[in-house]
Specification:
Layout lengths: L4 H25 L14 H8 L38 H34 L1
Helix pairs in contact: 1-3
Length: 124
């Protein structure tokens, strides 16, 4: 039996979220370190596009460039420079941390729903 790709993808997403939260924590911890530059991780969408390239099999399908939502790129060069000479914006880091928490919660809820669906399918 083939492993279920949803569980593997969810695990990879949780690993990515943990790495991002670690970088966010380091940015917050170094907010007063002179010369420290804020760091962030490559987006999960970009990581997945590299790992699993999408192919359009029908001209009516959405291409990978089409998107219903818009992503907001954070340019750390435009971040407010604090007196210590670094570019860590605590507001931005807290927003990123909130985003990580929300994504982790959503990921967990998807896995729970999929697990319940599998359980009900195997019982019947």
């Amino acid at each position: 039996m083939q492993p279920l790709q949803l569980f593997d993808t969810a695990f990879q997403r949780n690993e990515w979220l943990a790495q991002r939260q670690s970088l966010i924590s380091a940015n917050i911890a170094n907010a007063n370190t002179p010369g420290y530059k804020a760091k962030d991780i490559e987006s999960f969408d970009d990581v997945m596009r590299k790992a699993v390239p999408m192919a359009v099999t029908d001209p009516q399908h959405l291409s990978s460039g089409d998107s219903a939502g818009t992503a907001r790129n954070v340019n750390t060069d435009e971040a407010e420079v604090l007196e210590s000479g670094n570019n860590v914006s605590l507001e931005e880091e807290f927003l990123k941390s909130s985003d990580v928490s929300r994504n982790y919660s959503m990921n967990t809820q998807i896995i729970k729903a999929f697990s319940r669906m599998l359980q009900s399918a195997t019982k019947a």
